[in-house]
Fold each of these.
Amino acid sequence: MTEKSFFLEAFDGRKMFFNQWTGNTPAKANLVLIHGMGEHSGRYRHFAEFFTKRGVNVYAVDLFGHGRTEGPKGHTPKIDDYLWQVDFIVGMIRQLGQPLFIYGHSMGGGVVLNYLFKRNPRVAGVIVSAPSIEPGFVVPRSKLTLGRVGRKLFPSLTQRNGLDINGISRDAAVINAYQADPLVHDVISAEVGMGVLEWGRWLVNLQRDAVAVSLLLMHGDEDTVTSYPASEKFAAKFLSGDVTFKAWKGFFHELHNEPEKEEVFRYVLRWMMARL
């Protein structure tokens, strides 16, 4: 696998950080990866290593407020900036010519689902893992109140995101690495926090019984970070189209970091190859 990282300027001059992982043979497909809240694209190197060995190149961007992308932690001035970022990287990778898939995890899964239904991209398929349709825990009322007021008066106001890191994975080594990672943080701004919840409600209320793009939605049924029932219910909306809901029994939030992660990778790869 060949690794490359680089910066590119966003619409407002912020420098966005990208990771690029390519295989040593011609690619069958390209995959754009959108990470979750408080983390960064570098945590997916092992994910990329699996796919590049099997003919799928992986490209990822650190979302605004995350990783090495320029700007304050946990914040971007407008939640729609994330749709712009997905559009930017999809447009960039589409030029390479191979079939293109989009993969989003957690908050990134919520971003990707909003992108799918608001922007209607022409791609080979969309994969979402434990998407942020609804939280898997009760958000304290005080946090919600502060978020609503802050979004109107001081959108960059940050709070702790309240995620239980022990719910990320059943692998203790993953938890330890997460805690030790200097690029991981637990803050979220009023704009982003309320925006993510708003986008989730939009998905819950989406009046659509068909989807034009192949969609794979996966969720661990022991996830305490994002809601497994919300994902199952969302997938059931679609009465026509190529929609697959995959439940991972006993799995926690980060399917790609569970002890059985290669089983997850193989399932995703088979789903992708069947749609080429």
Amino acid sequence: MRNLATRVIFQTLNDKRSVALILIAPLLILTLVYFLLGDSDYVPVVAVDENVPSQLLEAFEAETLDVRLDAVANPFDYLADHKDVDAVFEVTQAGTTITLREPSTKSSKAVREIQAALSILNPTPDVEMNYVFGEEGQSTFDSFGYVFLSLFSFFFVFILSAMALVKERSGGTLERLLMTPIKRGQIILGYTLGYGVFAVVQSILIVLYTVYVLGLSSLGNIGWVMLTMLLMAGTAVLFGATISVFARSELQVVQMIPFTIVPQVFFSGLIPLDLIPYGLGNLSYIMPIFYGATAIKEVMVYGNGFTGVWPYFLGLVIYASVLYFLNMRALGKYRGH
């Protein structure tokens, strides 16, 4: 028993990826969580009608709010046109109203600051809350279901393709293919199209099940959601092929997940990018899950079509193209051998 335990210990110590998975990965992820969930210096932007009493305006300016005086005819249309505004505050004959874009961390912070300002003038203010998208009290699944659609469409295809490609290379299949007249680009496209068949089935199944069985609402056409997930799946195959270059076994693919997939989850939309301190939100632009999750949100939450999703489609296409050329370079190395 002692000899077996000793052998396991030394085998693990000799595998640098296992050591990194056990010792370094938790520290890196915890550090990332610390920065992402730490104190944010984000200041909510609130549009206030020009005719509000000066006393109320002074109370707002005393809080951590970016107050914009503007003539707001319809708060719903105003928030739809001004995406940088978090809330619209109105005082009418019917009472006091706060209109927010959607239930989110940013909205909650704006409400807290507004209520703190109101409490200075009235300790028990009666405020009506409205949302342009979503509704108060909706479930966490309704708020973040789009994130899991993009995450699942990427993660499972990535795992399947990366492990299969490692097996193809370790078994010598890939080297034999490279000895044939088949071009490197055709090999990559062949793998992508092959796994793409499963991606089509997966995308249709996940979307239909989530919308019609689990009841996740979608204001837009779910066809755009399926197309987004197909683009995500194609990118996942190429991402898996790139990662497989650095792995010699299926276990090593799993060992890379904390460094390649887990960080992307935090930048997928679970945390508003504006709330991430130190400018770390900009890291989302180098992560494919961000583009997929944002495109799905544009469709399901905001009800947009092609005009809302095309920038994120373009981001996925560019990302996939870069991975495609990286994989071609990597195959050239094996052909050289």
